[in-house]
Fold:
Amino acid sequence: MRPRRFLPSVSLLSAFDAVLRTGSTAAAARELDLTQSTVSRLVQNLEQQIGRSLFERHRQKLTPTRAALAYGRDIGRALDLIQRSSMEFAANPGGGALSLAILPAFGTRWLAPRLGTFLNKHPGITINLATRLKRFNFSSEGFDAAIHFGTDDWLDAGHLKLAEERLTACIAPDLLAQHPVSIVSDMSGLQLLQLETRTRAWKVWFEAQGGEVETTSGMLFDQFATMTQAAIAGLGVALLPTYLADTEIAEGRLIPLLEKSVAGTGAYWLVWPKSRADYPPLEAFRAWLCSQVSQTKGEF
Structure:
């Protein structure tokens, strides 16, 4: 049961949102195609309904309170979500849209080439993709689900484990010719390229090779794509997950060093807000994703 007092009408919230964004009732009135007095009345009605003042009034000027600014951010996101959902329903009433946050490299190199099979099977569903490098708050971002690397520790979220990450050290052919590597100690002196979200990766890799990393010196990247290109250019050694390493190795642009595909520092997960668990497009995508990852033997 939702108390009606705390469910103001869209007209009240839209007037409040417009005044916050435009800075005045006059500008808000022009945007909403209403009279200035109507906008003022709507804002006052909202204040009466929630029992709090939203603005300090000095003559003709309205100044939002600090609490109103925070409230306004939430209201703006809610109005955006209502608008987007309505537009999606109007455009596709028989299916639905799935808004998915993806990791850039995973989305580009693993997910995107396979999405056609999902869309062919579910022609009524539209998938909207956006990249996110770090975790976020589902309630503020509006995503239905996300592809996440790490562990199953998102708050108030459902988790589906896709696969463990496996890592391969890769080097450009020209750099390997200049600096041959046949045992782990031969790695000394090579620049070890690093990813911001895998701070322990080189330590784990060296331990799997039976050695210890002396110092991790090398360029720092926020995405695999740029790190891979740096390795291809001979700027250092990249530690890549299987789905990236295998492609670059097969094309001859990079060469694997020592033991290939060692256990990494985490896993890939599909995560979603519990409130969206039964959303039909998400249910369909989750089932399809399970069928796809079953072919990978639990490793990426």
